[in-house]
Known about the structure:
By secondary structure, the chain is an alpha/beta fold. The protein folds into 2 domains: 49 residues, Orthogonal Bundle (Helicase, Ruva Protein, domain 3); 107 residues, 3-Layer(aba) Sandwich (Dna Topoisomerase Vi A Subunit, Chain: A, domain 2), CATH 3.40.1360. The chain has 9 helices and 6 strands, in the order H-H-H-E-E-H-E-H-E-H-H-E-H-E-H. A 4-stranded parallel beta sheet has the order 4-3-5-6. It has a two-stranded antiparallel ribbon with strand order 1-2. Helix 5 links the parallel strand 3 and strand 4. The longest helix has 17 residues. The radius of gyration is 21 Å and the shape is globular. The model has no long low-confidence stretch (mean pLDDT 92).
Amino acid sequence: MSKHEPLINRLIEDLQCLPGVGPKSAQRIAYHLLERDRDGARKLSRALADAVDRIGHCRQCQTFSEADLCVICAHPRRERQLLCVVETPADVHVIEQATGYRGLYFVLMGHLSPLDGIGPEELGLHKVMDRIKSGEVKELILATNPTVEGEATAHYIADMAAGQSVVVTRIAHGVPIGGELEYIDGGTLAHAFSRRDLFQ
């Protein structure tokens, strides 16, 4: 016999589709919404339904967008000769918040993962190649994550762009500002040493 009513069971199970939300967290969220914030739950339900129904992908960069072109691709003052390749829409947001980058993006919506059936076609890499061949892009900035998959994806794209009239760069990885060497993992430190720059 279930310890919850059927609808509560369903709510708890469905909340577990969220990343990092297990059975206990899902139960806590469900109880909170039902006990203390039913208006918030209704707003959340409407917002989720609207987002799922109305948000698609930008035809140019693949990020989430309500329109055919996202606000960044449609902006007339972005530097169209710069194209930054990232893995997720969240990466775009972070770069926009933390840097002065004013170019365009291409969002892979993942990384190469042959075991999961994710290859170049699934990531839309032919679209990146089309933009490079158009001659508009002068610098291709690879900003995939510094994971095994992210590095493999960056190398694949760099090889793909070889021989084209575009400069391919990779964002720097290494010791974070404010970090102490004794707490940095060996892989990060080795990468920082191998990619060290002139001190200025």
